[in-house]
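Page 42, continued from yesterday. The earlier attempt failed because a stray header line got pasted into the input along with the sequence. Redoing it now with the clean sequence only.
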Amino acid sequence: MDDTIARFVSAVLLTMAALLPIINAPGLAPIFLSMTPGATDAARTALARRVARNSFMLLIGAVLVGSYVLIFFGLSLAVVKIAGGLLVTSTAWHLFRAEQSEGPGLVSASTPPPLQIERISFYPLTFPLTVGPGSISVAVTVGAGASVQRVSDLTPALGAVGGIVLVSVIIYLCYRYAARVLGALGNTGTVVLLRLSAFLLLSVGVQIFTTGVIERFGLTVPGL
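This time it went through. Structure tokens are written below.
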């Protein structure tokens, strides 16, 4: 029993350690705030809950059947990174340009319609901003390592699921309280942080795309 618990806890911690740095929910909280200008606290709470739920489902799907889906369509993780990197880059560039044009009045006083909030809950807030190609590829790798071939293999698989549950909870908390945390920065500090976050997201997209190209074509880059 003690060995089973130890394996379960190890799988939980391994999953969290692999996913949290890539997802970086605290760093994405300003992006979440910038995409919900003027939304009420209740609307942001509902949206944060929806994004966390969508993220959980995407990550669980990647862990359980991600590798089989890639095999079925004849895709590689490198190709997924290339496509996802382009998508993240495009989204980040749009956010960066929008923030430049809107300036300090980024957070408006009008409340977005519920349909708009619901529409952005999956794209782009859940995918590719929160759960992008990097985290999906990691989840697929975790799933391959926790594949169930016999009953004794259930412990690592359940541990991976438990880790994803905790990651989803962290995503919810970071998004749920984004406005409260950033409110302490003031209007100017918030705008600066939003633009910096958009730039960092753009850099992440370029990095994912570059990594995918290197892996896909077997390139060797000095210094990497």
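Notes: The CA atoms of residues 94 and 161 lie 34 Å apart.
Reminder to self: strip header lines before submitting.
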